[in-house]
Amino acid sequence: MSNYGKGTLCIQAGYTPKVGEPRIAPIVQSTTYKYDDIAHVNRVMTLQEFGYKYSRTGNPTVTAFEEKVRILEGGAAAVATASGQAANVLALTNILKEGDHAVSATTLYGGSFSLFNNTLKKYGIDTSFFEPEQPEEEIAALFRPNTKVLFGETIGNPGLNILDFDKLSRLARRFDVPFIVDNTLATPVLCNPFLHGANIVTHSASKYIDGHATSIGGIVIDGGNYDWNNGKFPDITEPDPTYYGARYTEKFPKAPYLAKARAQFLRDFGACLSPQNAFLFTLGLETLHLRMRAHSENALALATFLTDHPRVTFVGYPGLDALGRERIAKYFLKDAGSGVLTFGLSGGIEAIDRFVKKLKVAALVVHVGDARTSVLHPASSTHAQLTEEQQRASGITPDMIRVSVGIEDTKDIVEDFEQALQ
User: Fold this and answer.
1) How does strand 363-364 pair with strand 340-345?
2) 151-170 CB burial, b ≥16 within 10 A, e <16
C-alpha cells in the first residue's frame, strides 16, 4: 500500500479480510489460542514459528492496530502497549541497562522528563539534557562512551518546539546510537520521523490516534534502519538463553529491536494493550487525516486571535513563528502545525483560575489531543513534579496555559475564549 495517500492508509491499512471474513477487524476478546499438538506450541513459544500464544504478547485485534500505525509511519514492525508512557519505557529499557547513559531534549512531557530524570536513574541509567536549539557541538559534548540513546519529541509538549531532525540525526549517526522520537503531537499524518533520520518512533495512542478520549494505550515502531551489529547492544545480537539461544538480528533481520521488545519485555513486564482499546484506536485512525486538518486550522485561528488580545502575554504555536513555519515546511508532510497551542495570561494564578471557570466550550482536563477543546495549566499539573528551573528548561512558565484545540466550529472556539478573557 506504499503508493496510497495517508487518508487511504488511515482507512484501509493494517487489515485485509479474506472471503467471508468480517470487513472490519473484529475484537478478539480472548486471552489464549488453541493448538492441536505440543510440537506446534513449542515452535511458537520458542520463536521458531509465528503464532499467537497468549494475548500478553500478541492478539489479532492488536495486530491490526499495530500494522496500521506501522504502515502510516513507514516502519518495519510495531508493538502496542498499555499506555503512551509504557511505550516510552519499553522503547528505552529494551536497550538501556545499568551503567548506560542517554541524551535527551529538555522539552518533554512531564512524565517523560521524570522517567529520565528520576526513575531511570534509580536503575543506574543516567541522562544528560540539552536545549533543542543548542549548537550541535554543545550537544555533542554531552555524549559519552556509554551513551546508548538520543531522545526527543517531534513537537515538544508543551513547549511546542519542532525538533531540528537534521542536526539530531547527524549526532545520532556520529555517535552511532539509535535516535528515538516521540511523535505523539505530530501524528504520522503530519510527520514521519523515519524520513528524517529517526530509528525508533513512539506514540501515546491515547491522544490524537484515539481522538475521542476513550482509551489509554501506546505504540513503539521500529524503523528497521539501525545497524545493531556495532557491539553496543549484545542483548540484541547475542543468543537469548530464554529462547533456546535465538539471536534477534539473525532470526528477525528486518526489525530485531522490536522482536526483542515483544519477546522479552511484553513477556516480562506485561504492559500489553487490550483488544477493546486496540479496536477503538483502529477506529480513531480512520478519521485521523481529517481530524488533524481541522485541529490545525482551528489552532491557527485561535492562536491568531490570542496574539492580538491585550491580556495575553505570549502565544506559542508552530504555525505562527518563522522557525516553526520553516521546520513545518522542511519536516512535515502537510502545511499544518497540529492542534496544541500555549499562551500566557496576565494577572497570576487567580486570573488563570477565573478564566478557566468561565470557559463554556472548552474544559479543564488532564489530557490533550481529542475532538473536544480543553485547557490545562502545566506548571500545576502535568509538570508539577519538576522544579521551577526544570519547568523553564522545558518551556513552561507560571502563566502558561496549554490549549488542546478541538474540532468544534472555529467561531465557537474563538468566541468562547473571547468571553472567558473579558
Assistant:
1) unpaired
2) bbbbbbbbbbbbbbbebbbe
Cα(128)–Cα(142) distance, rounded to whole angstroms? 6
Q: Which residues of the chain have pLDDT under 70?
A: 2, 382-383, 394
Q: Can you give the pLDDT at residue 111? A: 86
Question: Can you state the percent helix, strand and coil of the chain, rounding each to 5?
Answer: 40, 15, 45
Q: Closest Cα to residue 189, out of 163, 225, 155?
A: 155
Whether the CB-CB separation of 313 and 345 falls below 8 Å is answered with yes
Give the count of alpha carbons within 13 A of 106, CB side only: 18
What is the distance between the alpha carbons of residues 149 and 153, in angstroms, rounded to a whole number?
A: 13
The helix/strand/coil state of 298 is helix
Q: What is the number of other CB atoms lying within 10 angstroms of the CB of residue 254?
A: 11
In the numeric block, the cell 475484537 is attached to 27
- Tell me how far apart the alpha carbons of residues 103 and 116 are, in angstroms, rounded to a whole number: 9
E strand or H helix at 128: strand 126-130
Residues 377 and 319: their CA atoms lie apart, in Å, by: 22
How is 235-278 classified by DSSP, letter by letter? HHHS-BGGGTTB-HHHHSTT-HHHHHIIIIIIHHH--PPPHHHH
Q: Where are the beta strands (DSSP E) in 48-87?
A: 77-81
Q: Which long-range contacts (CB under 8 A, 24 or more apart) does 4-8 make?
A: 6/72, 6/188, 6/189, 6/289, 6/333, 7/289, 7/290
Three cell numbers written together for 305: 486571535
| Percent of the chain topping pLDDT 70 | 99
Q: What pTM, to 2 d.p., does this model score?
A: 0.95
Rounded to 5 degrees, φ, ψ at 129 are: -105, 150
- In three-state secondary structure terms, 5 is coil
| CA atoms of 154 and 168, how far apart (whole Å) | 11
- The whole-angstrom separation of Cα 279 and Cα 28 is 9
CA pair distance 283, 65, nearest whole angstrom = 9
pLDDT in tens, 354-377: 999 999 999 999 999 999 999 999
Contact 87, 219 (CB under 8 A): yes
Nearest alpha-carbon partner for 84 in 72, 69, 103, 104: 69
